């Protein structure tokens, strides 16, 4: 009985330590010109944990242990970053292929 009680206490303490290792990563997302990119999707790699940057391009995501954050936005190349602290500032590069398609697009009016 004493061993079972000791094992139970050790399991509870190790669970508390594992929970204590999670941290909240915050930051801002801009494009390569320094213009803020609102509503960027921020995903914690190899998990289902994801969030979206707000209208002011700020994001906040809870992260446990070590991992990469992947940033994706329409018209911009995806970027994967390994955060070293609790704050991350990311600059996404524009997708040249998409710009070329948009430049070639012409609006035609049909009768």
Give a structural overview.
The chain is of the alpha+beta class. The protein contains two helices and seven strands. Strands 3-2-5-6 form a four-stranded antiparallel sheet, with no helix packed on it. A three-stranded mixed sheet has the order 4-1-7. Strand 2 and strand 3 (50-52) form a beta hairpin. The protein is elongated, with a radius of gyration of 21 Å.
Features:
three-stranded mixed β-sheet, 7 strands, four-stranded antiparallel β-sheet, alpha+beta, 2 helices, 25% helix, 111 residues
The overall pLDDT, averaged over residues, is 80
Strand order of the largest sheet: 3-2-5-6
- Please give the alpha-carbon distance between the first and last residues: 87 Å
From the alpha-carbon coordinates, what is the Rg to the nearest angstrom?
21 Å
Q: What is the chains' assembly state?
A: single chain
Low-pLDDT parts are none
Major beta-sheet overview: 4 strands, antiparallel
Brief digest:
This protein is an alpha+beta fold and 111 residues long.
Write the layout of secondary structure elements.
Elements: H1 2-20, E1 22-31, E2 41-44, E3 50-52, E4 58-64, E5 69-73, E6 76-81, E7 87-92, H2 96-104
Parallel strand pairs: 1-7
Antiparallel strand pairs: 1-4, 2-3, 2-5, 5-6
């Amino acid at each position: 009985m004493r061993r079972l009680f000791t094992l139970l206490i050790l399991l509870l303490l190790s669970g508390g330590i594992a929970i204590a290792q999670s941290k909240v990563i915050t930051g801002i997302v801009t494009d390569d010109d320094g213009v803020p990119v609102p509503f960027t999707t921020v995903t914690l790699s190899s998990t289902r944990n994801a969030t979206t940057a707000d209208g002011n391009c700020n994001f906040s995501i809870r992260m446990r242990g070590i991992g990469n954050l992947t940033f994706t936005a329409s018209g911009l190349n995806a970027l994967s970053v390994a955060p070293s602290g609790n704050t991350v500032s990311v600059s996404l590069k524009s997708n040249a292929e998409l710009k070329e398609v948009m430049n070639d697009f012409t609006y035609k009016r049909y009768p």
